Amino acid sequence: MKILLIGANGQLGRDLMAALAQHDVLGTVRGAITADDSETDRLSPVALDVCDAVEVRATIAGFLPNIVINCAAYHRVDDIESDASQALAVNALAAQRLALACRELDAALLHVSTDYVFDGAKRAPYVETDLPNPLSAYGTSKLAGELLIRAAWRKHYIVRTCGLYGLAGASGKGGNFVNTMLRLAQEGQPIRVVNDQTCTPTFTKDLAQQIARLIETEAYGVYHITNAGACTWYEFACEIFRLAGLQPDVRPITSAEFNAPARRPPYSVLENAALKALGIDQMRHWREALAEYISLKVAQR
């Protein structure tokens, strides 16, 4: 299969490059290509600005992939509350542009979305057919992208996931949650983590492998893909420290105390119902996934 992977140098993109090794994959990155981009694993990317309609069509038409996987996103959640223009450009309008180009060239599209499309009022795991109701401008921009894709082209997979962390980090956000917790603990700083937001942290390695299985099915539609189980962010932080053998000063706080500009859903656990219906849900428990991640981080030192 020929696959165009947009955002190949991100934490999910790098794990997808490994998970899709048996396929013919062309990765793209935004802006200048660095030595780190081109010298890691199989990544020999091309530059692509997903907000440039001419570049998008030319890249897809030049490679003629069977499927385009879109990992590009603008996810500075709190910044977006005061200015949603870039989020709408990347998360919504660029997603539509990709869908239209894929329709023209008869390529499937897989687009990565988020648990933040839900408001958390259900207080039970969300399935794919539950009605979205985002609380933040970020969640709204991601839902807009989903809707524009669904309106533009039937050959789509929309993958909602949650709390991503991977070995490549999250450069656009200044590091993923696990890395941030480890850094703060090593610096000896007091750590305060919200204990009233429940989700399922997801290892990008597991997500990438599940996406690789999904695209073989041609069963288009909306999918939830997260690791199993659920925890608050505080509980997640405590497990990180336990596995890493650290004992920092960590205490739970409320979302009101944290006082972030953007509202987060108090409960955004996703049920992998559509994967289970296909019989291909192989996502392990988040604690097991985190244990492997921490062991890999230790091995990197």
How would you describe this structure to a colleague?
This protein is α/β, with parallel strands linked by helices and 301 residues long. It has one domain: 3-Layer(aba) Sandwich (Rossmann fold), CATH 3.40.50. The chain is 41% helix and 17% strand. The chain has twelve helices and 13 strands. The strands form four sheets. The chain has a seven-stranded parallel beta sheet with strand order 3-2-1-4-5-6-11, sandwiched between helices. Strands 7-10 form a two-stranded parallel ribbon. Strand 1, helix 1 and strand 2 form a beta-alpha-beta unit. The longest helix has 21 residues. The chain is globular.
Low-confidence stretches: none
Q: Report the CATH C-level class.
A: Alpha Beta
> Outline, from the CA principal axes?
globular
Arrangement of strands in the largest sheet: 3-2-1-4-5-6-11
Query: Would you tell me which CATH topology applies?
Result: Rossmann fold
In quaternary terms, these chains amount to single chain
Average predicted confidence as pLDDT: 93
CATH superfamily: NAD(P)-binding Rossmann-like Domain
Structural class: alpha/beta
Q: Please indicate the percent range of residues in DSSP E strands (runs of 2 or more).
A: 15-25%
Largest sheet features? 7 strands, parallel
Number of extended strands: 13
CATH architecture: 3-Layer(aba) Sandwich
Ends distance = 36 Å
Supply the number of helical segments.
12
Count of separate structural domains: 1
N-to-C SSE series?
A: EHEHEHEHHEHEEHEEEHEEHEHHH
Radius of gyration: 19 Å
Helix content: 40-55%
